[in-house]
Design brief:
With 788 residues, the protein is of the alpha/beta class. Helix content is 53%, strand content 17%.
Length: 788
Amino acid sequence: MTEKTNGSDLWQRVPALTDALSGKGIGPTNFADPVVRTLLVAKARWLALLVVGLYGIGAMVMFIRSPYGFFLSRSQILFLVLSVTVMAIYNSIYHFCYEKISHLRFNVQFQILLDLLFVTALVHFSGGVASWFWPVYFLVTIEAAVLLQEPRDVWLHGALGGLLYGALLAAENLHIISFVEMPFVNPWVHNDVFNIVLLWLWVSILNGTVAVIAAFLMRVIRRENVALRESEARLVGFLDSANDLIFSFTPEGKFLYVNRAWEQILGYDLDALSATTMLDIVHADQKVKCLAGFRRALAGAKVTPLVGYFLSRDGRPVAVEGNITCNFRDGAPEAIWGICRDITQRKEAQEQLLHMAHHDTLTGLPNRRYFLDRLKQSLALARRLEHRVAILFLDLDRFKIINDTLGHGVGDKLLKEVAARLSACIREVDTVARIGGDEFILTLVNLNNVADAEMVSRKILKSLASPVEIDGHELFITTSIGISIYPGDAEDPSGLVKKADVAMYHAKAMGKNNSQYYTPALDRDALRKLGLENSMRKALERGEFRVYFQPKVDTGSGKMTSLEALLRWQHPELGFLLPAEFLNIAEETGMIVAIGEWVLSEVCRQSRAWQDAGLPLTPISVNLSGVQLQQKNLAETIGGILAATGLDGRSLELEITETVIMQNPDFTIGILGELKALGVSLSIDDFGTGYSSLAHLKRFAVNTLKIDKSFVRDVDSNPADAAIATAIIAMGNSLNLKVAEGVETKEQLSFLQGCLCDEVQGFYFSRALPACEIEAFLAMEIHPLAAP
């Protein structure tokens, strides 16, 4: 609320201000204004004429009925009527047409002079020296005090009144004009000079005294009036210049006053509010509360500060807080005054801070804190209604590659797009939140069965499968999803999130781009994973990693054409570990870079050693992870390894999964071009699981396609898999690409031979073998096709 600027003084002035702002004028008459004073005198003159006229008519009637009879002659009556008429005419001019004559220099003095002459005429016709009408000179003197600014001018006009009275008496005494004989007055009084002089002196002294007193009093009144007006003008100016909304309205709600801030903020001036009541301005949601406050004010009770919303002229809500008070006159409520502050910006700032405290600033989704609060409420409701709740924990696959290669700006835009797609996959009652980096989490409530969660996860995977166009880059993104269910997996929010997180890591271990439910066995896997992560940090230093080799065979000649290097870990406690058990951990921790460089160095060293031993030249393929591919110095690193080992680049083939390549095609093309310049061959692994098109294959300039084993596994029994494999082989042949497969049965081999697949590998021929056992294949030129 505002600091009330001398509040007690302000509200003490409320009645006068209410009069002023409601059109009743500010305090007393404005005697500082000559026009106002002239109009007041004109109105008083009408009253005097009325009184004189009524008195004259009454006196005439009484004289006619009295023994004296009516004593005025026709000419005297005519002159008297003419005098009254003249006064009525000039008073009409001063009353109704003063603006037209106000510029005349002596218009004020002229009307005083006319009044003095008129009074002198009335004194003459009422008996002259015997007239008791002479006190009317005092009224004209007071009139002069009202009209004239300077006391000296008032004194002069008071003296002028005395002179005119003396001149009248002298003229009558000297018979210059005939005096009017009064029936009950002895005529000798008109000739008694001593009486005439004493009467004139008495009237002159009294009139002068009245002039001095009236001039003094009017000067005091003017000064006080000016001071009051200036004070109230300053107060009104303060109200108008205040930044707060200040307003006043009647007990019926009709507006009396609004200040400039009200007009600027709400768009209403006082004229626009003529047909509007106070409650019309109050927001519909606040009417009841405000009406209660108004009633308390009208009852004279103290009103606590009100907070609510006003409606501007364009319908925009304006948040305000302030106080109201009511002033009373004669015990009855006269007007309610309010002073409010526009707190819209403060409200917006508070709401923004509240939103920021509960939402992710990038995507606008709820953050972890808000999500857990919503989840807590959902679980409480689920307990009462015996419903199921599912938690889906999502982590984007290989998002770090995009963030590091294209920059955080592109990464942020991709996260916003993912947030939008996730929001479109759920219902309004569900919640999706971003809890950090590239991790998202969803709450699905009111589930009929557990399978509904998997249905939503499939919907999410399908939605994210569509490419994203950002800043000219076509990006592909996948996600791994972990699912936990209430009741069953955990009872509290943090427990459910933890279980879903564990299931998500299991989904990554299962090849990414899939969803997995939590099972208690995954907790053991999580502990195992933690142990592997700790052990891996020293495994490279201890020489625990091994490189094994698996032959690739030409389907036509049956000869071994090349080898694929595969990593193994000889763990001191857990034994012999396959890549599926630890490569994901290596990628997540970033250790895959150092391990990958070691594998490349070991493969190149072994290949060179075999060549130096006179064994046939056999290209060896090495798998590159997505983390390695994002390294900007990858080509430089591989070139250095080739140079250090003396190996020709043609003896090395690099395998990259289709999903990794398609995550950022434009960036991948540049890296592949640099690798191609080293002379190495390029192969796309797991082909068919990503989003490659013929246009992409041409741009990538790869040498080999390796169909994902999921399409080869059932080619002899599943027509769909057979059709896909056939199409990929045909496409590869049309592009002069070798097509490699994972073969485990004779039926699979027969099918692939029939489809003219160039090259195959798999357990049907040989498992991955250490270097010493592979040398037998190389030395004796064994035909793996004949091995079984």
